Known about the structure:
mainly alpha, globular
Amino acid sequence: MNNQLIIDKVLHDTFPDEYSTLGNETIAKLIEGKIKFEPPEKGRLMPITEIFQNLMEGIAFINTVLEVYDYLEKKLEKEPTETDTEKEINSRGVLPCKLDQNKSKKVIQSVVNQRKQRKRK
């Protein structure tokens, strides 16, 4: 399973409301980097703006978790656990500012589970 599929699955599991609001096609474009979000300079922020911001932050954090997981896998010479991954992320100080702790933990858990499933296939 490539990283884009993992990111898609983690987004679907962790941000179900935002995911369903934007739909598969838009999410795929976000993951591929084909849509760049720029907040409006004037006017009120619309709810869709917040959805894009949350998902962009989620994608960035998922990519960070994937990088940390891969680093730990090489360093430890085994599959890292959720705890290993979370400790390394905390030590690097790369927790996302807009995701609450529960959402961050869910992303880490989902990435670790997706990586382990990928290894079994």
